[in-house]
Design a protein that fits this description.
By secondary structure, the protein is of the alpha/beta class. It has a single domain, classed as Spore Coat Polysaccharide Biosynthesis Protein SpsA, Chain A (Alpha-Beta Complex). Helix content is 38%, strand content 17%. The strands form 2 sheets. The chain has a 7-stranded mixed sheet, with helices on both faces. A two-stranded parallel sheet has the order 6-9. Helix 5 packs parallel to helix 8 and helix 7 runs parallel beside helix 8. The chain is globular, with a radius of gyration of 16 Å.
């Protein structure tokens, strides 16, 4: 199993994130988006075998694409570097994949899940996005914008990640549905970011997600070359 962590100036959060990742994980990939702090040094100190991938394109989507493509594991997990996601949940994703799922989506709103960080505006927006995805694509997700997910490496081409921004999580969920992948949801609990300030902008990124959904509905689905 490979764990992919997109990172941009998260030196203060990486000690927590890396210490929650199970020791049996085969590979940890840190995708560094031109950090100006000690993110890379700290990662190598805490996880000596960490693989660092340098991504010069801006955006979380670009970082995820670079990390997932570079990963060598049969099972791939993506987790944020801000400390809001608990690596102790990774076994749940692994188990869902081993039980037959191709794509496993973390959810803050499934039964048994929760969030200490979500605002009423963002919760309302996510519910609206879930509704729109259900109407346009038939996917019954309880959470459309959470970035904790896992996928089988041999199904990565089905997702055809070609988006650079925060809308990438929503796009991946849509592509998994359009590709008829076997999908499972895992209940997760989201905490507050530990250090630093989120680069997410609810209105700007919400509009970008909406445009992405509409554009995806109008374009033909294709599987990228594996």
């Amino acid at each position: 199993m490979s764990v992919v962590i997109p990172t941009l100036n998260e030196a203060g959060n990486l000690p927590y994130v890396l210490n929650t990742i199970p020791s049996w994980v085969d590979e940890v990939i840190l995708v560094d988006g031109r950090s100006s702090d000690d993110s890379e040094r700290i990662a190598k100190t805490l996880w000596p075998d960490v693989r660092v991938v340098h991504e010069t394109r801006r955006g979380k989507g670009a970082a995820l694409r670079a990390g997932l493509t570079a990963a060598k594991g049969d099972l791939l997990v993506a987790i944020d570097a801000d400390g809001s996601m608990d690596g102790a949940m990774i076994p749940r994703f692994r188990d869902a994949l081993l039980e037959g799922a191709d794509y496993v989506k973390g959810s803050r709103f499934a039964d048994g899940a929760g969030s200490a960080d979500i605002t009423p505006l963002r919760r309302f927006g996510d519910a609206g996005i879930c509704f729109l995805i259900r109407v346009l694509f038939g996917a019954r997700y309880t959470d459309a914008t959470y970035g904790f997910f896992a996928v089988r490496a041999d199904r990565l081409a089905w997702l055809n990640i070609d988006s650079d921004g925060f809308e990438v999580e929503t796009l991946i969920g849509i592509r998994a549905r359009r590709g008829r992948l076997r999908i499972a949801e895992v209940a997760c609990y989201e905490t507050h970011r530990i250090h630093g300030t989120s680069r997410l902008h609810a209105l700007r990124d919400g509009l970008r997600i909406f445009r992405t959904i509409v554009r995806e509905r109008l374009r033909p689905y294709r599987i990228a070359d594996a």
